[in-house]
Amino acid sequence: MVKEILEFLITDPGGIYIDGTIGFGGHASMILKQLNARGKVLGMDRDLDALSFTEKRLGQIRSDGYQLFHSNFKNFPEILRSQNISHVNGMLLDLGMSSFDVDTPLRGFSYNHDGPLDMRYDPTSGSPASEYLRAMTEAEITGIIRMYGEERFARKISTSIVQQIKTDNMNTTFDLRDAVLNVVKGKFRMKSVSRVFQAVRISVNNELDSLKIVLDSLDQFLVIGGRAVILTFHSLEDRIVKQYFKNAAIDCICPPKIPFCICDTQPTFKILTRKAVSPSEEEVQMNSRAHSAKLRAGERI
Q1: Element (H, E) at 197
Q2: Strand pairing report for 16-19 and 88-94
Q3: What's the CA dihedral at 227, 62, 122, 151 to 10 degrees?
Q4: Which of 70, 151, 256, 287 is most buried by a 10 A CB count?
Q5: Closest CA to 229 of 279, 288, 277, 287
Q6: What is the DSSP letter of 121?
Q7: What is the pLDDT of residues 69-81, one digit of tens each?
């Protein structure tokens, strides 16, 4: 959805734009090409391999037009302060997993490839999913599967996971997959596997809390007229983003019975996407992983 992202995001070709999930630089490279000599991209990512690749990719476009930071996007206020930047013109968050992560068995994200059960976006910090699950109680595992995977067989699956942990069979992605398939039957059992992998990944990387932290800081660092563009890939993220923009656009909280406004509520954002923007059929045909993408955008007022 590069076309839509650029249309919503860029308001000033001489501005400063944050790509908080820069990854391998696909979106950032297109943004940089739209900027003039004064414009700049600040890119953040937890994956050092991705940043190394992006450094070379963006350097071929304009070596003085970007800065990269090995960091979670939730830390963007500290990064801006360290660069003596008070405001930016736009922020992009693409919350989808990269194809590299999905297709690389060593990263441990995919139930289609056997590899170490890791799931960390930043392998240099935190604990891999295998250790993370070992440190949790059965009730805690049930909670994250239910909360982040919205999986109805959460309790049954968590019991199976704990049983495999006790026999030291929770070290690989196939171990986790098998723990689900051992207790969930029927033609939709792989849906349960997918939900469990999503839940564990979200929890290991603290994804939703990081998103909420970023949203809470947006209005402080976007210039008036600046844009926030957020691309989500599952309903949990999308609900958080949708509710944030809805709340930020409220201009009155007075009870309905009061004939005129006395609350003096000041909205901080104007919603640019009344409904989430979805990828075209053509784009989905080219990239099947884009089918669940939803884009929402807001403008600072």
Answers
A1: helix 189-205
A2: parallel
A3: 40
A4: 151
A5: 277
A6: S
A7: 999 999 999 999 9
